[in-house]
Specification:
About 55% of the residues lie in helices and about 10% in strands. The protein is an alpha+beta fold. Strands 9, 10, 11, 12, 13, 14, 15, 16 and 17 form a nine-stranded antiparallel β-sheet that branches. A four-stranded mixed β-sheet has the order 3-2-1-4, with helices on both faces. β5 and β6 (about 340) form a beta hairpin.
């Protein structure tokens, strides 16, 4: 039988051993902490900790009186001889075949005593107790157990029993099945860790390009009997001497980073999280200088290592797969004189192809795009590319043949997403586009990007490409509709490649990127009108988003000003497509349906202005009223019941609401026009997720603050607010809100609608003091990338109202804190534009009030707002 024992530490009995274990471990760690940050220092620490654990376990084994026929085996990472400062110590207590742990009280007592003593002295072991037969059976059922036992190492006890165990485990290994299982496991792990080495908070052990990818290669090679070390793999022809050096160098750096991370955190921590990156970087001796943070230097070094590991892992896994499955002997179908199709993989005709014919480097990706059935590059091709990086020099980049071929890749009908990802993974993209090389592994120190700059750019390229693929039309219906009519998709691909390419240089990256885009277009012979469009898109890639989310789209002057900037429909369409792709490529949390509606509204209104249709507010209002009346009739509303409400509303109400909302308001309020108590109605939002909440109440100075206070206390996040005052002195406000408990099921919406309608009405009936805003915890990202709060208060274009802009890091209670300041100074709120970018907010309010006419009062309001939006002390 087998058993896993997790006995609690026992006090006393091994006090001297406990002190010696802890003192020696601390000495090893402290010596490492004080030493120069180098791979050899990390290797010495790892070996020292492993030897120290071995000696301690051997002493405890004797102290526990373990039977002479049993053996202690190190497994997993400890078995590999890689014990980091706070790694688990995984051991196997191997029992003879005739041992029955359950029936032998003396044996059971010895095993329990040994495990208890381990915990008591501070060895946090993961232990299993099995016979050899049980190990073989368990390994057959669970590939994780099989992997851990594969890396077994003798520690003490019966050596012959360990040798029997090792022989039987090797005999039970099925290389093909093990390779398949570990490959699938790697795919799942990569997906779990965002499927990229370039996450801003990578796990240096588990993320793509981390230590686990290197360990995986050794596991499958060892399982197939192809070698246990990089040198043995080289001797068996699986890797070259140059690749051995690259593997050892990058593995050494990743081990060093992981060891430093453990020491800095003082615990087992394999994630390079934001709040540890600076401390780890400083332990390397890096310091912030010249506008570059110490953490950026460290992370850039990490990303380059992770990228190299990803490349080499791919090459070696393909090589091992070919060796195990025999696919290296598959027949090859010639594609041209330089490339073959071997089992769906693109194979070079000779190992030195790229050294002899450098033009073939970019041809590789063009052939990959053009050849049906090719699903990737073979190990031989990847290796040839890896070894030919130096041929892509200045002369290569200026070669007209290469420039023409790069443009051909961009202009192909399909395949850009995969081709450019492969070009980046193989370092070809950065070698050819030298400006792109500068942003490989470049951190983005903000609160909404979750990828490095190069990874974000490739995500945006992917998103743009999807607009032109019919299979993805369901994801972005309006974008796909516009893309189908766009004449040259490659223009958008170039703009996507360059829109953020100048980040990290200082200055406005949009302006600097436009210069780089213009230079690229000139060098690649792009026609003048396409060059102008690409340059415009890069320079203004943030303008549409800023206009839609910060300005009043119901104001004709806003639309006319934006239309004058874009000038024509083609430019507007291109900018809209790039903007949607860009926002969706920053982080899964940034995009939402409400944001999409704002962008689409801005596009449609601008398109109408570009078509020569001058804004006719009266005609627009009448059209919306007619549509609203039709909707009311469908809902069996009596004719003309909407008229009394509409008579109290001004032009701004009808320009800021869709016909659907206008009809809903009329249907909800026609019986309550003279209500003395607040009326609150809620429904599932007509735009995306969340609720729309209608508040109709006799107006009062603190009404908006009380509404925000309720939403804050109830845990709702306000996405948008439209605030109006009727001619009869009533506030008619509409809010778009979301709640963490919303799970898109009808029951969750029903429950929240009832809750809001009852509780918000009670909150508005209160005359007590406004409660304090909730003091929500600040997220790790906000702590790591604090934003200096900014408040701007300036008159609008007509100097009739004031534009209040607030920029700060997001937290619960923020909008309510702003509303309390406005209520305190009796500032009337007419419009609120709530824009959340990840964990940063950019809110704009249209306000008026007598206090704003006095300079001293203005300063006081701005000062109080800065205090209100300042990040909370953690």
């Amino acid at each position: 039988m087998s058993a896993r024992l997790n006995a609690a530490p026992a006090p006393g009995g091994v006090g001297a051993l406990r002190q010696r274990f802890r003192d020696t471990k601390q000495q090893l760690i402290e010596h490492f902490r004080q030493s120069r940050a180098s791979a050899p220092a990390a290797a010495r620490l790892i070996r020292g900790l492993t030897r120290h654990a071995d000696a301690t376990l051997a002493d405890l084994w004797l102290h526990a009186g373990m039977p002479p026929g049993a053996a202690l085996v190190a497994v997993g990472g400890y078995g590999r001889g890689e014990l980091f400062p706070y790694s688990d110590v995984d051991v196997l207590v191997l029992l003879p075949a005739d041992s029955a742990l359950g029936a032998n009280d003396a044996l059971r007592s010895s095993v329990e005593g040994f495990i208890t003593a381990c915990w008591d002295i501070g060895l946090e072991i993961g232990s299993s107790v099995r016979t050899v037969a049980e190990c073989v059976a368990e390994a057959a059922r669970d590939v994780t157990v099989q992997t851990a036992l594969l890396e077994s190492r003798y520690v003490c006890g019966a050596r012959r029993l360990f040798q029997t165990f090792r022989t039987q485990m090797d005999a039970a290994m099925e290389p093909k099945a093990f390779l398949r299982a570990k490959s699938l496991e790697m795919q799942q792990r990569h997906v779990k860790y965002e499927d990229t080495p370039y996450s801003l908070e990578p796990n240096c052990k588990e993320s793509p390009g981390g230590l686990r990818d290197l360990q995986l290669v050794i596991w499958v090679a060892r399982g197939a009997g192809l070698g246990r070390t990089w040198s043995e793999l080289a001797a068996n022809g699986l890797i070259t001497p140059f690749e051995v050096k690259q593997l050892q160098r990058n593995e050494g750096l990743l081990r060093l980073i992981r060891a430093r991370l453990h020491v800095v955190a003082g615990r087992r921590e394999d994630r390079l999280v934001f709040d540890l990156q600076t401390a780890v970087a400083e332990s390397f001796g890096y310091r912030s200088a010249g506008g570059q943070r110490a953490s950026e230097v460290l992370m850039r070094r990490y990303y380059w290592a992770a990228k190299a590991v990803s490349q080499l892992n791919h090459i070696l896994m393909l090589n091992i797969e070919e060796r195990i499955n025999g696919s290296e002997d598959l027949p090859m179908r010639p594609i041209n004189e330089r490339f073959f199709d071997r089992g769906g993989m693109l194979e070079v005709a000779s190992d030195d192809l790229y050294l002899r014919e450098p033009h073939a480097v970019l041809e590789t990706f063009l052939v990959y795009q053009q050849t049906v059935g090719i699903k990737g590059l073979s190990a031989r091709t990847l290796r040839a590319l890896y070894n030919a990086r130096n041929v892509m020099n200045t002369a290569y980049r200026h070669d007209p043949v290469n420039r023409a071929r790069f443009m051909q890749i961009l202009r192909e009908p399909s395949g850009q997403t995969h081709a450019f990802r492969l070009m980046n993974q193989t370092s070809v993209l950065g070698r050819y586009l030298w400006v792109f090389r500068r942003i490989v592994g470049q951190m983005q120190h903000d609160l909404f990007h979750v990828y490095t700059v190069d990874q974000h750019i490739l995500m945006v390229l992917r998103n743009v490409r999807r607009f032109f693929i019919p299979e993805h039309a369901h994801e972005y219906p309006f974008c796909s509709q516009l893309a189908a009519q766009f004449d040259r998709p490659w223009v958008l691909y170039v703009a996507a490649l360059f829109h953020d390419v100048a980040k990290g240089r200082g200055g406005d990256h949009s302006d600097l990127g436009a210069v780089e885009a213009r230079r690229f277009c000139r060098d690649h012979g792009i026609e003048r009108h396409d060059t102008q469009l690409i340059e415009f898109l890069v320079k203004h890639h943030l303008t549409l988003s800023r206009t839609a989310q910060k300005e009043d789209l119901s104001d004709p002057e806003v639309i006319q000003r934006f239309a004058a900037l874009v000038r024509d429909e083609r430019t507007l369409t291109a900018l809209y497509l790039l903007t949607v792709a860009d926002i969706r490529g920053t982080s899964p949390k940034v995009w939402n349906a409400w944001k999409g509606k704002l962008l689409e509204d801005c596009y449609r209104l601008t398109l109408r202005a570009l078509g020569g249709a001058k804004p006719n507010v009266d005609a627009e209002i009448e059209a919306r009223k007619a549509e609203a009346r039709a909707l009311l009739a469908l809902a069996s509303q009596l004719p003309a019941t909407e008229a009394p409400l509409w008579a109290t509303l001004d032009v701004s109400y009808f320009t800021r609401h869709d016909a659907i909302d206008i009809a809903w308001h009329a249907r909800m309020l026609w019986r309550h026009l003279a209500a003395t108590q607040p009326v609150v109605r809620a429904r599932a939002s007509s735009v995306g997720e969340g609720l729309q909440v209608l508040v109709y109440s006799p107006d009062r100075a603190d009404l908006f603050a009380r509404i925000c206070g309720y939403f804050d206390g109830a845990g709702f996040n306000i996405q948008d607010a439209k605030v109006h005052t009727t001619g009869s002195g009533y506030a008619l406000d509409t809010f778009q809100v979301v709640h963490p408990q919303m799970d898109n099921t009808p029951s969750s919406y029903r429950d929240l609608i009832s809750l809001v309608e009852v509780q918000l009405m009670k909150a508005l009936q209160s005359d007590g003091q406004l409660p304090e805003p909730s003091r929500g915890r600040v997220s790790r990202r906000v702590k790591s990338f604090p934003i200096v709060p900014r408040v701007s208060l300036r008159p609008d274009e007509r100097a009739q109202r004031w534009l209040l802009s607030v920029s700060t890091s997001d937290r619960s209670g923020l909008l309510y804190a702003i509303a309390r300041v406005l209520a305190r100074h009796q500032i009337n709120l007419q419009l609120a534009k709530i824009s959340t970018l990840g964990e940063r907010v950019e809110d704009t309010f249209l306000v008026d009030g007598s206090a704003l006419q006095r300079s001293k009062a203005q300063l006081q309001i701005e000062s109080e707002l800065l205090d209100a939006v300042a990040p909370l002390a953690s």
